[in-house]
Every structure is written in structure tokens, then in C-alpha cells.
Amino acid sequence: MKVGIVGWRGMVGSVLLQRMQQEGDFALIDPVFFSTSQAGQTAPAMGQTTTTLLDATDLTALAAMDVVITCQGGGYTNDIHPALRDSGWDGYWIDAASSLRMQDASTIILDPVNRDVIDRALSGGKRDFIGGNCTVSLMMMAMAGLFREGLIDWISAMTYQAASGAGARAMLELVEQMGHLHGIVADSLASADASAIEVDAALTSAMHSAGFPVQECGAPLAGSLIPWIDADLGQGQSREEWKAQAECNKMIGRDPSQPLVVDGICVRVGAMRCHSQALTVKLVRDVPLAEIESILASGNEWVKVVGNSRDESIPFLSPAAVSGTPSVAIGRLRKMGMGPEYVSAFTVGDQLLWGAAEPLRRMLRILIER
Ligand code: NAP
Predict the structure, then answer these.
(1) What is the SS3 assignment for 33?
(2) CA 232 to CA 215: how far, in whole Å?
(3) Residues 74/97, Cβ–Cβ less than 8 Å
(4) pLDDT by residue (tens digit) across 62-90?
């Protein structure tokens, strides 16, 4: 199987390559690496026959692939995908970008949750398989058991999203902001009688000053947060918030005329690569908490239910604990004051793994094993 890989040196693409190496995927395919900016240079060595980078805009070269897997971004997809399809190419297109997600010809991929939808799409001859929004995918991974059992009436998701969701440069700027802030008060911190009120005043003043580095994030993220992610849809909702319901329903193949309501506020926080979400879940009926925990734990092999205690939540239910692991942790589970059908939950997952790269490489495996 000739697999064209585009966008492999970006944030998502780098994690994709790492995971493909870890799982031995390259031994099963003939990979061909493409680039929009470095054609002709040496490709990463994965035992392939084509050792130089091909031009990612060369439709003839792309059309020689059985599968194209791209993490290059929406602009690339918008430019290349229609032209490639118009040229008659009928290979499989696997994509991390959002451009094609809601099109009828596309299937949103998250196989531990919707393998049945993927299998039906393959049997029906569909050829475009698109990774979901990172926050939506992580929520679906955590809540897979309750979705499977049809127990959810609606979900309110309040998110705490990491800098990595805004790309590599935002991650680097977050650390730059941290260093900038520390540099301003380093001398005060070194003194034995450091005053928190004076340190705070200096930091606030730095965040308000023109020299504070905000080119990528648009505002201070270190020591603060940003309560808006992605475009303004003009009706009070951000595009990131809109995706929750739209993608969730499409992912599980639900009748669009009777959507499951998922809504909330999406917020960027100063975590590096783990998204967290505080969920309020309205169940269709009163289910005992122990049963909810056991259904959630049975959702898939990666979901980890964390006991709702201080001793377990603090060490096991944070971005610092989950980052870099394939686990999707869910905890703070309890019945809420609004009534026995209302359950709270807090979930944390690495958005570069299950939120981005992992569904793509697993889709490739599904094609290889067909
Ligand atoms: P990214 O890090 O900005 O990389 C995209 C491309 O930028 C690279 O493939 C590379 O293409 C080019 N590039 C230019 N200078 C570079 C440099 N110094 N280092 C690395 N790459 C450089 O994008 P991304 O965050 O991986 O996102 C890719 C797509 O996945 C987007 O559509 C995004 O919306 C989607 N997505 C992202 C996430 C996420 O968490 N970040 C999650 C889900 C989906 P060339 O080699 O061709 O120049």
C-alpha cells in the first residue's frame, strides 16, 4: 500500500510519525513523504523506497498513492483535495484538518467510539476519513460507555484547553510568557522576605505592558486564560463551541433531525498539551453512581475512571499527570444538586494523541487490515 504522508513535520504530524514508529506501522506500508516547502530534500528514513521529499502540490505524484494522510492544515486540504478528486483519484484521504469534516462524503473517525460508523462508510464506498476536533474526540473517548448505553440526554462541556491546540508556535509562546513573567520578579523571589502582593503587582503590570509576547496567543495565557477559541460565529458562540454538538452527532451517526445537545464555553488555559473539560451530564434516567462508573470504565481500554476523592483527583486527574500518555482520565463523578439524573464529571486527555494523531494512524491500520 503506497501511503503519501503530508504535514509530517508539524505538531500533529510529528506525533503521528512517533506513534507509527512505536506501533510498527511503517513495516506494513510503502510510505512516500511530501512537503509543501522542502520538496527534493531528504525524507525521514522509514525504510521506504522514495527517499526524497515529493512536492505536496503535485497532483500526479499524489494520485499515485493508495492513501494520502495529511496533517498539513485546512488551507492545504481546501486547495488539493477537490483538485485531486476532480482528477479521478479514488484513493483514501485521511485528514487532521477540519475542512472536510461536516461534508456528506466524509466520515469523522474515532474508532473506539464509532467503528460501526467507519465500517458502514467503508462498505458504502466512502473514501474521506477525517479526524474529529480534539476536544470533541477526547470527550467522546471519556464518555464512550454512556453514549453506547444511550443514557445521555444532554451534555454541558466547559473546557480548559491546552496551548498545543493552537499549534506549535502557541506552545512556545506560552513558555516564553512564563519566562518573561519569572524574569521580572526573579530578584524579588530570591529574597527571603519576598512579598506576594508586590510580585503580583509586577506581574499584572507586565501582562498589561506593550512588550509582553502575545503574537501567537493574542493575549496573556501564562498567569491568565483566554475565554474564546476559534472564530466568532456571530450569535454568541465560538466555532469551537459549535463543533461540540455538530461533530459529536455526526461521529455517532445520529439522526440530524434529533440531535443530542452538547454545548458549553471553550477556554484556553496555560496547559501544554492536555485538554480538560468539566461536564454536566443530564442522563435520560436516574442511574446509580456505581453503575455509571462501571459503564464509563467499560467504554474502551484507554478510559481511566478516577475515584472522586481529593487523594485521587489531585495526583491522577490533571494535565501534568496525563500528558504524553494514551489514557483519557475521567473523575469528579457525583450526582449534582439539580436532581438524580444530573452527574458531574471532569475529564483530561492528551490532545495530540487521541485528540489528533491516534485516530488517523488507527484509520490507516483499519485500511491495511481490510
Ligand atoms: P503545524 O504545527 O503548524 O504544522 C503544519 C505544517 O507547517 C507542517 O507540516 C510544515 O509543512 C509547516 N511548517 C512550516 N514551518 C514549520 C516548522 N518550523 N516546524 C514544523 N512545521 C513547519 O500544524 P499542526 O498543529 O500540526 O496542525 C495541522 C492540522 O491538524 C491543522 O489543520 C489543525 O487544525 C489540525 N489539528 C490540529 C490539532 C492540534 O492539536 N494542533 C488537533 C487536531 C487537528 P511543510 O513541511 O510542508 O512545510
Answers:
(1) strand
(2) 19
(3) yes
(4) 999 999 999 999 999 999 999 999 999 99
